[in-house]
Amino acid sequence: MEGAKRGQQPSGPGPYVVEAAFHPDPQEDAANEPAAAATQGWKIRLAGRGAAKGSTRNAQKLTKTTPQGDVHVWTFRQDSIGILTTNKQAVISVADGHGPRVPGSLISLSSHLLLLPAAASHYDTLLEYCRANDKEKILALMTELFEDCDQKLLMTDPHCSVHASGGSTFTLNHKLYDPKTGQVYSVLSNVGDSPAIRIDQSSEVITEMSEDQNCDNVKAVERYCNLCAKKNEEPRRVILGRFNFQSPLGKRCAWMGDWGDWVEPYTYSKTEEGVYEVSHNVEVMRSFYERAPEEFQPALMCGGPQSLRARPANLEALSRGEYPSANFGSTLEGVLQMPFSLGDKADKHGRLRVKCEPFVNLLVDSKSGIEIMGTDGVMDCLPDDELRNLIRNNPDATQNPENFCNMVATLTESLAKENWFQFSSWGVPAWDDLGFWVIRFDPISSETLSGSNSEQEMAPSAEGEVVPREQRLIFRQLTGITDDMEAPRHSSSLDSVKTVSAEQDDPNSSQLTIKEDDANNMQSTIVEAKEVFVSSVEMEMTVDAPPERATSHSADNDEEFYDADGGSLTPTHVTPTQSAEPVDAALQ
């Protein structure tokens, strides 16, 4: 079936669209770049979508004002997408929380609020390193930023540090405009396995810019082992998926004999210099495939159960007579699929010794491009061949990020349905939370840019007004936070978070225009605090929360939980909240 014709466009809110522009600043460039002769600016257009597992496609939008600019975040329970822009940079991000719902959601959200302004504050330094193509210094700086963020989440943030479990992936796409050459550098950094890909429409080549830092990637496991060795720690073993982990019922892979407790897909060895080398455990994997009972063979021969995206590589390996171990969702001793993450306090300080060193990639652009960044709930459903078919059958699709975003969402849900992924009774994806960005960037003459986008030269936005205290309860209600989770008051990533209207452009915002339109042309609106609170309670009760938790906080309880340093957290419903979406909205 052709990718372009699969299913119907998912119901719910249309893409959350962001437009930004890079352009030379004549006064600043004359002072800092006397030889600057760039006449090329850039137009950056993004469109994002997502879904909270089994409940809604509506996002909670939050904005925080920082000295570097406003950070905008759209959350879909534990998945979230974010952006910060100025006239010379755009910091774009995707996070996928995991673990218990509350800490996973908080760490996912807080990661944007911490890392985006931190990266933006190093624009000059990063630009210098990019110009020199000094990848070692770029890696060192991004590692420092990620580790600093991680320490705040683990140790000092009053809303995240109180949780021993829960963490998040994080993929950061930092686009830096060089006013000297007119080029754009993209510094792509990630921990965990939320991929970012680039599509060359003319050649149909799809390149993964990020690295899957999970236990299905032998290179990531080897890096984890050597980071443990540097700290005189013992790296933990990887086991194949979770299905063969020892349980009270006995061995899950009994056909493996003595190997039946843990099927280990890798072997670890150490050189005389103390360097770990990780290789595929061919003997064990051959036994795993050849001894498997007949009823298991179809699952093994289909390319692996973890991801549609990774199946083609496994099928190629099988055709060569190999015994691939990738795409089984392997874990560190049956616990985490990722040896790298943000958060996960117990697994960082406990026996697993999880790390937070990002993979970093540098790309240089002088022509138009299209990228997709997404959580694994989305990207696992998007094999490269299906994306190629989508573009081939719709040659103009990528010219409009909003339309292409809708096409990607339709393709994702169609492929998921064809492969028996779970949906709720009203047609919302229920196999995972989802969140993704489609990014389009195009060069444009600075004269044209300044003539048609004069509003993009306005000053950065000022601090927002303090919102009514009853709105401050909304996020606590949605996440189930209780009073006994309060910690000593340290500076929090959630401080000074404010509401921005989804109906109009902020006249004070710097280089940013936000358009949020419902796919069904419903007028976007801000739901009043009491309406949000009531509908949120209804959502909790009808979707997946036990009634006692859904009603554990009352609107009469007006204690200010998020008020450190005078700040507050106020989610904004960008479309009217609905307790359910119609069944006929599901893909056919």
Describe the structure.
By secondary structure, this protein is α+β, with helices and mostly antiparallel strands. Helix content is 28%, strand content 23%. It contains 16 helices and 21 strands. Strands 3, 4, 5, 6, 7, 8, 15, 16, 19 and 21 form a ten-stranded antiparallel beta sheet that branches. The protein has a seven-stranded antiparallel beta sheet with strand order 10-9-17-18-2-1-20. Strands 11-14 form a two-stranded antiparallel sheet. α2 (101-120) packs across α4 and α14 (473-479) packs parallel to α15. The longest helix is centred in the N-terminal third of the chain and has 22 residues, at 135-156. The radius of gyration is 24 Å and the shape is globular.
Number of strands: 21
Largest sheet, if any? 10 strands, antiparallel
Averaged pLDDT: 76
Detail the poorly predicted runs. 451-491, 498-588
Count of alpha and pi helical runs: 16
Beta-strand percentage range: 15-25%
Q: TL;DR of this structure?
A:
The protein has 588 residues and is of the alpha+beta class. It has helices at 26-32, 101-120, 123-131, 135-156, 218-230, 282-291, 297-301, 311-319, 345-349, 376-379, 384-393, 401-418, 446-452, 473-479, 529-542, 547-550, and strands at 13-22, 40-51, 60-66, 69-76, 79-85, 89-98, 167-177, 184-191, 196-200, 205-208, 238-239, 266-270, 276-280, 331-332, 342-343, 359-365, 369-374, 434-445, 497-498, 513-518, 572-573. The strands form 4 sheets. Strands 3, 4, 5, 6, 7, 8, 15, 16, 19 and 21 form a 10-stranded antiparallel beta sheet that branches. A 7-stranded antiparallel beta sheet has the order 10-9-17-18-2-1-20. Strands 11-14 form a two-stranded antiparallel ribbon.
